Protein 1
Amino acid sequence: MMRNGAAGGGAAAPRPVRVWCDGCYDMVHYGHSNQLRQARAMGDYLIVGVHTDEEIAKHKGPPVFTQEERYKMVQAIKWVDEIAPGAPYVTTLETLDKYNCDFCVHGDDITLTIDGKDTYEEVKTAGRYRECKRTQGVSTTDLVGRMLLMTKAHHSNIDEDLDYRKHTDNFGKGPKGHSPWTGVSQFLQTSQKIIQFASGKEPQPGDTIIYVAGAFDLFHIGHVDFLEKVHQLAERPYIIAGLHFDQEVNRYKGKNYPIMNIHERTLSVLACRYVSEVVIGAPYAVTADLLDHFKVTVVCHGMTEVVPDKDGSDPYQEPKRRGIFQLVDSGSNLTTDLIVQRIIKNRLEFEARNQKKEAKELAVLESSRADALLTERHSVAFWRSEELFKGGPSEGSAVGVLRMCCPTLSCTNYADVMSWDLVA
C-alpha cells in the first residue's frame, strides 16, 4: 500500500509511508495491539519505539515486565514491522528523522512526563502527529484489579459485575476522581473487531496445519516463546489456536482464572504474528472430529501440566493415538501465575504509580478547563466594550457574534453579556 502518489510512465516509485509509535508496552494487551493495527493502517511500514525500564521508572514507576520481555512482546504483534529498543520517553522530531518516519501515531489519551508535560508536544506543534481511537474496556489498571480482587465478574456469563466494578475503582482512581484515560471501562466484543484482528487467510496446499490449545490468559512472553517454537517446526506453518471457554479454564486452573475473558483472549491471540486462526470455545479434549475438520497434521503442547478431562481421561489421547502429538519446550518458565505473583508482590507500588499518573492527567484537564473559562471571560469583556456596543450591532447579533468567537460561552442573551461578573 503506497500512499505518496502513483507510479507511472518513467516516474520513480513512491516512497513508503513510515509510521512511528512509542510507549511502555508493559503488560501488553489487545488495546495496545489495536492501537498498532490502526497506526499501521495509516502507512506502509510501522516502527515501534519501546522505552527502557529506567525511563519508565523515572516518569511512571517501575514496570511489571523487563525491557527485554517488552521488546519481544511488541515484536510479536503482527502489525509491527520493526522495533526501536530504548526509545526516549519524550517523542521528538529528532527521533522521527532518525528512523525516517513521516509522522507519529498515538491514542486519544494523554501521556505526560514526570513534570506533567505532554510527551508529544513537539511533534504535534510540527504537524507530524496523528491520533487513533483508544480501545474502550481494557487497561492495565483493570487487568491488575482483576488479579488482586480474585472475583469472577470479568468472566463471560457471570453476574458479579456491580460488585467487581465498585472495587476496581480503587486501582485507577485518585482522591480527586477518575481520569478518562486511566480509569476502568467495559469492553464490548463485536464481530467487526474480530474481523479487524483476523488474518482472513485460509490454509494453502503444502501448509503444515498445527493445532495448539489452552487458556492463553494474559497473553505474555511465555506464550510468544511457545508459539515461536511451534512456528519453527515447519517450513510453512499454519497455526490454529484453540481457546477454552472461561468456565472450562476456571475448572482446571481454579481461583478467579482466567483473568481475561474469552472475548479478550481471542483478540490477544489473533494479534500474534505466529497465529493464523483461532477456535473460540474449543473443546478441552482434542477430538477426532476437530482434527479431521481442520485437517490437523501436528498437535503441540508446552511443558506445563496437562489436567485430565472431567471424566479423568487424557485430553490429548486422540492425537497421541494418531502419532501426531508433540511436546514443545519453549525455554521460558514464565506463566500467568508468575505474572500474578509479580503484581501482588508490588501491589502498593503499582496502585501508587497509577494514582500518581491519574493525578497528573486530572491536573491537565483542570488546566484546560481553566484556560477555556479565561478565554470566555476575555471574549465577553471585549464584546462589552463601549466601542463595539455603542451604536453597533443589535442585541441578538452581538451575542451571536460573541458565541461564534467563544463557543463555550454560557451566556444566552444580551442582558447576561452586559451583567456577567468578569472577576476571575
Protein 2
Amino acid sequence: MFGGGFFGGPGGFGGPGFGGPSGFGGPGGCGGHGVGGHGWGHGFGGHGWGHGGKPPLKRAAFVTAALLLDGPADAAQVVQRVSDATDGAITPPHEIAELAIGVLAGRGVVTVDNGVATLTELGQNLLAWRGVSSETAHAFLARAGQFGDVFKIRRELFEIAGLARTITWTGTDEQKQQLAAARTKVLDALREAKKTLHRTLGED
C-alpha cells in the first residue's frame, strides 16, 4: 500500500506530506491543477479535488482523511470543516464528501457508523507516514482558500464548456442557434475581463 497504494508512491497522492512533488503543494497542488481543477465538483469548487495527475476522488478522500484528524465527522461536517478552514472560499458538494468517505471506508482508512467516519489506526498511521497533521491540513486549506475566486471562475467556465459541448453534439437547431448567441456574449465578456485584468497588472 505504501509503495503504490492509496496514500503514497506512484499510485498515491504525491510526494512527502502536503508539499512534495505532485502533492498538495506541488504541481498538482492548490493553484495548479489541484484543489481548484476538476476537484470537489469542478474544484473544491468542482468534480473531485483537481486533476493534477491523480484521480479527483482520491484527492478528495485524502483531504477528507486529513480533516478527520480533528475528530469523527459525517459528510456534512466534512463540508463545514472545509468551508471553515478556507474562510468560506471553498464549499465542496455534500455528495462528493459522501463518496470520499466511502472510498476511505473501502480502503480501511476509516470506519463509518450511522454516516459518521472515524479514522482507523491504519488511517492515522498512513497520515503520519505522509507527514500530515491537523495543522498541515488546515495550513493547506487556508492557502487554497486564497484561490477561492480563481476556483469559482474556473468552475463556471467548465460548466459553460460542458453545456456547449452537449448542445454541439446533441442539441436541436434552435438550441445551437442559442448557443451561438451565448458564445458571442461569453467571449465578449471574457475579452473585456482580460483587458481589465491586464490593465490592473500594468498598474502595479
Protein 3
Amino acid sequence: MNTLNHWAPTFDCETCSREFNSQNAANQHMNATNHWAPRIECETCNDMFQTQSAADQHMSEYGHYRNYCKPCGRRFNNENNLRAHLNSRIHRGTEISCPFCKARFVSTSGVSHHLETSSCPQAQSLNRTSIAQMVRRADPHGIITNKFIEYPDHDEGTYTATRAAYNGQAWECYICHRQLASSNGLNQHANSPVHQQSIYHCPNQGRNCTKQFVSLAGFFNHLESESCGFIRFENVQAAQRQLTDAMAGRRMIAGVF
C-alpha cells in the first residue's frame, strides 16, 4: 500500500487530531463531542461561533453588529438607516435654529422647509420662490441652481380645489391623477413642490451625481443623507450659514460649494 499509495482515505475531525475511515464515522464523533468547527462569523471581528445565538451574544456585548448603535442598543438593516438614526433628534438634538424666529431644528433641511413654506412668523414674506430667487442671484455660475431661459420673478400662486376636482369617489389631481380623501389634501398636494420644476441640483459633478430638487429643503436633505459622499452631515450646517451670507449679498456661492 505504501508503494502504490493504496491506503484508504481518512476523514479528519474538524477540531481534534482524530481520523476516521468514513465521513459518517467522523460526523458521529463530532456530534458526540461537539467538535464541529465554528461556522458563524462575527459581523465585525474575526471571531467564529458554533451557533447564531452565541454570535449574537458576542456582537451584542461588544457592539460588533455591522450596523449597530451601541448607546441605544439598536440594530439596523443597512448603513443608510444607521446613519439616519445617528443624525436624528435622538443623537443630534435640535442644534440648528431659524435665523429669524430662532425656532430650533434637527437639520438644515428642516430650517429650509420652515422658511420655504412661509411658516416662520418673523419672515412670512419668504417662500420657495423668493428664496430661490435670492439663491439664484448669488449663484451666477449655476453651481447649485439650474439655468432657465426665463426665471420666475413672482410666486407661482396658490391652487384651490373646486367641486370639479371631485370625481365621485375622491378629490383627483388633474396633473398626476392621484386621488386624495379631501379637498384640503388635494390643496396641500397641488401646492407642494411635487409638480413644480427642479430649481437645484447636486454640486457633486465629480461623481456625476445627477440628482435634481424642487426645493432648497430637498437639496439640503440630499446633502445631509451623505448618499453621494459630497459633504458630511455635520458640515452641511456650515454650508447653510455660508449660503445665507451669499443670499444676503455678502459672498458668492462659488465660495461655499
Protein 4
Amino acid sequence: MSTLIDPSDDLPQGPVSNDASHKRFFSIAPPAALIFFFVLIFVAGAIVTLDHKENLSILQLHPREAFATEEIRPPATSALRAEPTEEPNLCENQCRPSGSEALPRGIVQDKSNFQMESLGGNPGRKEAVRPSKSLLAIPVGIKQKAVVDKLVAKVIAVQFPAANFIVMLFHYDGVVDGWRDLKWSDRAIHVAVRDQTKWWFAKRFLHPDLVAEYEYIFLWDEDIEVDSFEPLQYLRIVRREGLEISQPALDRRSQIHHRLTARARNVDVHRRFYKTSGHGRCYGNSTGPPCTGWVEMMVPVFSRAAWRCAWHMIQNDLIYAWGMDYKLGYCAQGDRRRNVGVVDSQYVLHRGIPTLGDGGKEQVSASATDRLAVRQRSYTELKVFNRRWKEAVAEDGCWTDPYPNPATTG
C-alpha cells in the first residue's frame, strides 16, 4: 500500500503553535497599542502645558520687556501723516460793544461828544490834532442869569477858552430863550427840563461814553464866583498832584459846611484836616471822610476815569445825591487819601443861594419852592442811599471793601 507524502514535510518545522494561545495574543495586542497611544498624547499635552506656563511666567515677570517690542514697532504709513494744525479763529472772543455784533467792527463808534458840527463842509477832512478838552456843566435858572453870565463869560473868554472847554447848561426851570442874547450862548449846549437837579441831569446826559473825550468834568453849582480861579492853572496842579477827584478850595467868606473844603493858606493842595476836640474828630491816622479823601458836591471836578465810576453810583431816583459824597473816594482810582484833594491856590466863592426850582415867576408850584419839603426829601434820600450801600456790600460776595475801618476815631 503506497504511502502519501505531505509536501509540508520538507519544510523546516518549528514549534507548533497552540491555536488557543495564538488567538489570545491577537485579542490582547490592540488594547495595548491604544494604551501606548494615549500615553504618548498625555506626555505631549504635558509638555505643551509646561511650555505655556513658562511663557506666562515670563510675561508676568517682565511685562515691560514683553511689550517693548510692540511699542518700538514702526508705525503704519498712514499713522505718519501729520494732522494739519487748526488755525486760531480770530473772530472769536472779540470784545465788541453790546448791540454792535451785527455790524462790521470798523464802522462801530461806541463813544460820542458834544462837539458842534458845521452844516456844510467836508466831514471826511482830517482835522488837526485838537488839544485835550474838559467839560463844564452847570444847572441854571433864569433868575440867576446875571451870576451865571459873569461866570461863563469870564471863563469862556479868558479862563475857559473854547479850545479847551465845552460848556453845558442844564435849565432846571425850562427857560432857554431868555439866554439867547448872551454872546456865549450859541457856543453852549442847552438841556432844558423843569424842576430837576444837577444829579438828575448828570445821570441822564453825562453818560461816560458821551464824555469819554473830555479829560476832566467840572460839575458845578450856579452860585459860584471865580474871581480867584484860573482853570488852566487848576488843571496843571491837578495833573501834577495826581488828583482824580478834586475841588477848588472855598474862600473863607463862603457858606462853608465842612472845614476840609475851606481854603488853606500858603499851600497849593491839602488832602486832610485835623480836629482834636468836639464831635467828629480828625487825626493824622484818620483814613476817610470827612477828614480825608473827600470833597463837597457843589464844585467837584472828576477825571475821566473817576467820572465813569461815579456815574454808575448815581441812583436814578435819588436826585440830591446825599450820601454819595462820602463814597466818592471809592472812585479815586487808588488810595483816596492821595488821589482826592482840595486845591487851595485856585479857590472860588460859594454864595449858597437856594435857587433850584424857582422858575423866576411870581407863582410857581409848591413842590418847587417848598424848601422844607426839599430838605426832608434830601434826608430821606440819605437814608435810602446808605441802606442800598449796605445791602449791596452784603450781597456782593466778590467785592472787598478797601476801606473797612471807620473814617474817624472820635
